[in-house]
TrEMBL record:
Species of origin: Juglans regia
Region (Disordered), start-end ranges: 1-22
Entry GO CC: cytoplasm
Database matches in InterPro entries: Aldolase_TIM, TAL/FSA, Transaldolase_2, Transaldolase_AS
Signal peptide start-end: none
Compositionally biased region (Low complexity): 8-18
Subcellular location: Cytoplasm
Function: Transaldolase is important for the balance of metabolites in the pentose-phosphate pathway.
Protein name: Transaldolase
GO biological process: carbohydrate metabolic process; pentose-phosphate shunt
Amino acid sequence: MATISRLTTPSPAASTSTLKPRSSQSKTLIGFYSGSTFNAKVSSSKLAVRSNPAIRGPLVVRCSQGGNGGPAKRTVLHDLYEKEGQSPWYDNLYRPVTDLLPLIASGVRGVTSNPAIFQKAISSSNAYNDQFRELVQSGKDIEAAYWELVVKDIQDACKLFESIYDETDGGDGYVSVEVSPRLADDTQGTVEAAKWLHKVVNRPNVYIKIPATAACVPSIKEVISLGISVNVTLIFSLSRYEAVMDAYLDGLEASGLSDLSRVTSVASFFVSRVDTLIDKRLEKIGTPEALDLRGKAAVAQAALAYQLYQKKFSGPRWEALVKKGAKKQRVLWASTSVKNPAYADTLYVAPLIGPDSVSTMPDQALQAFIDHGTVSRTIDSKVSEAEGVYSALEKLGIDWNDVGSQLELEGVDSFKKSFESLLDTLQEKANSLKLVSL
């Protein structure tokens, strides 16, 4: 079981001394517009992003003017990284991937994808039709064609973030692609899928996403030991998170590599879904004490996860790996969009800012934080309060491991359904073109 006792926290200055803020630069805003409003807004900007059917309205970078009259690219995302050491990533991917360029200019430093994201992108866009037609005409089956579509997007996105990867010596600039969700309970199948994806994408800044299921924790160790960088996804509990960090360390130690600097990882700790489930349980309990804890569980658990992170990546064992060039498995805050409209739209971003971490944000969360987010180190500013919330929920009968298990099952099931739905959609497209038949 994970330990949640209070830990000594390094000072912000010590953690971010190499980051040099450039606060004199102007700011960029990202906004959502539609119809004529959109056309009017982008008429004077060279950084307009094309409309994406998978989201509500086009995502547009609206540039303020710098002192020389030209468009400036400064946003709060730059401050997030340079002042507090947290990397802002974008939780979405679709064609054309060049639509990412304005976001990179605004401070986005990486991209995450998952089966649900690709299901929305491919099923709602014609941008994939030409490649898909060529693939099925060449004899590819539907699932093989799907992977070809995905791999191209990932490769193209990796190219866009390559300069960030190079500038940070492999510390940032990653694009994540997930193994088939059908393999969530298949240890060796996941290892083989990760090896295959790593080989076919063939980019140094790709992260292979592996779910943190009990069956896949050993997969993480093996894949890391092979020198493949991994984004561990669907983490919902402290106990599973600790197992994931141990798998990373075990993998580094088992690799036999003398230089570990190119084997990196992030651990994607999911946030908003925790509140969604626990809030329902609190409402069922119905007492004033229970109702008062709504909307507090997810951030509290995340704060305690960060304490575990700091503890795990310190001490003699970690220092021995650092001597070989090892990099921390950064904690990544995922599921940062707000599901309950009654909550602040930056609830799962603003309180989770801390050094050596990542926050991946879908459109809504990204827009909200750029528009009115505040940059300051918050992740360990209220640890005692987080411990109190965590314990109070336990006293009310909330079983944290049970919550984690249920959310993991729901997450895996959701990705499986998205995956199967997309394959069905592609089959229908193929049938409509009379290219293939089952």
